[in-house]
Amino acid sequence: MSKPAPVRLPIFPLAGAILFPRAQLPLHIFEERYREMIRDALAGKAQIGMIQPTEHSDHPSLYRIGCIGEIVGVEELDDGRFNVVLQGSSRFRLIAEPDVGTSYRQADVDLAGFNDEDPAPLASVVRADVEREARRFGDALGLMVDWEAVGRLDDEMLVNAIAQVAPFDPGAKQALLEALTLADRADLVVQLMQFQRLSPGGADAGQTLQ
What we know:
- The chain is of the alpha+beta class.
- It has 6 helices and 6 strands.
- The protein has a 5-stranded mixed beta barrel with strand order 1-3-4-5-6.
- Helix 2 packs parallel to helix 4 (155-165) and helix 2 runs parallel beside helix 6.
């Protein structure tokens, strides 16, 4: 069987913002090049690729793994800015960035390297570890959390929500995105919460694994 052809996507490099399959990510789009990106995406397949930069510069290098976001909600404001909601569909591996002449970046990506179908449930002991450490982490940060509602989340929603909103550094968030299975991601998110909570200065210091 031949390998699927690469897919070309507009890409949105944004440090600290990761998207997982079946998860959602709200974005406020204000830069003109990304307004153009949203307009062009809406005129096409309504997809963009979320990916993190590895550095802070005008044209930063990128991590190799990102996630396709389907635009499932959009509000265009009077001044041309957008509020959008992305729904993650599948992770991708960046192959190349062609010179296509748009103000925003585009990339050819490979979708064949990940199995992003619905994951198997976590073992009960792993689920309990995630919830227990999330409570400790939330308390260390002084967060008000509806833990009863958290307990009703399915395994994937729980792990991915923590991965998206916790104040981990971009490298740690990238490691969570690249975890091959939900069980791997759950194990890593527990380690990251423990590390940040127990590091000198505690969770409020914003220290994470590098």
